[in-house]
Every structure is written in structure tokens, then in C-alpha cells.
Amino acid sequence: MRARLFLVFQGADLEAFKIPFVVYLVIVNLVFLGPLLVFVPLLARTRRQGLREFSALANRYDNAFVDKWIRGKAPADEPLLGTGDIQSLADLGNSFILPGR
Questions:
Q1: What value does the CA radius of gyration of the chain take, rounded to a whole number of Å?
Q2: C-alpha to C-alpha distance for 59 and 82, rounded to whole angstroms
Q3: How many angstroms separate the CA atoms of 8 and 53, rounded?
Q4: DSSP state, 38?
Q5: Looking at CB atoms within 10 Å, which of 1, 7, 43, 98 has the fewest?
Q6: CA–CA separation, 16 and 6 (whole Å)
Q7: 85-97 pLDDT per residue, tens
Q8: Is 58 exposed, middle or buried (0-12, 13-18, 19+ CB in 10 A)?
Q9: From CA 12, how far away is CA 17, in angstroms rounded?
Q10: How confident is the model over 12-34, as pLDDT tens digits?
């Protein structure tokens, strides 16, 4: 309200309000986003731990897939086509890409 009066009746320039507006934006961001900064270390630590555990699972699955299908340790009566192993490996790879971003 006060700023509008300055602009209309006293001919103030918009540039005069640049610094107060920037200060206002900084204060509003600190008030609303500042308390969330408390959780950043915990979230980062939890993310790293989850990625470590998921990487270990993906590594074990990948090694088992390689042993079974590449190194020839699959049962002789199990066909390559129609098996869920390949799709499961693709799904695991796709789900690993998303949290890594």
C-alpha cells in the first residue's frame, strides 16, 4: 500500500524498491525454508546408505545373472526366451537409475 502511494503520488522510481524487495524475498525464504535445512544432513546420510544397500543388491543380482546365463550355469531345461530373469534385471537397472539422480 505504501509503495503504491510512493509510486503514484510522489513519483518514486521502481528501482528504489529493488533492494527492499530482494531483502523481503531472502527473509521469506529463510523463514519458510530455513527450518527444513535441519533435515538435510539426515536425508543425505539416509540417501547414501540406501544407495549403498541397493547397489549391493544390484551387484549380487547382476553377478547371479552373469553366472546363470553368461557362464552357462543355468539348468539345461530352462529356455532363455520367456524367462523372467532378463526382465527382472532390466527392471532393477531402471529402478537403480532413478534414485541415483
A1: 29
A2: 23
A3: 62
A4: G
A5: 1
A6: 10
A7: 778 888 888 887 7
A8: middle
A9: 9
A10: 666 777 888 899 999 999 999 99
